[in-house]
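Board work, copied verbatim: DNA-binding XRE family transcriptional regulator
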Amino acid sequence: MKLSEKIQYLRKENSFTQEQLAEQCNVSRQAITKWESDISIPETEKIVLLSRLFKVSIDALLRDEIDIDGVKEVSYCGKSLEIELNSGLYEGALIKESITDENILDLMEIKKVELWKTGGKTKYWTVLFFSSKLKNFPEEISKVMKSGDTSDENWFVDFKSDGIKYIVFKNLILNYRIGNQEEKRLVCERCRELGIPDNQMQWSE
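↓ predict structure ↓
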């Protein structure tokens, strides 16, 4: 279920007209129409406002299926995965367009959403700032990263947990201890072999 469909569904569930929702969001009715028609995407602050207005989490707005209550157990790739609440917390940023299966979002809590201009054929990337307490999160996210025959099709996601920085590609998990320059150098060398330019390796620690 797309974000546009969720906005329309939740608006009707909360008995808002387009005009009333527009007033709440301080936008025009035409803007609401464009959101619901998938012509445009709400700005980050509007997504936050919608989550508060509809009393759902930001990640619920971005999931394939709306999950208002939130669950500790989710269905993913045909099996049940129990979130290990006592495991380390993974925190990072994911470009939504870099994954092949959006069900992976069920394993995350989305903290913030930003649209980044690309300067390329695709005008914007949707960047999700997330956390996850799933014990084997690196392995699960690695399964759904996009990859291709050329170096510019090798997507990765970076995140950290318990002093370890993770750089994860399709079926490849790289990591180093934050502050260990030699380990970081080796990870960067491997990334270069995969065609990643240096300006994309300036990830936060």
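The chain is about 30% helix and 25% strand.
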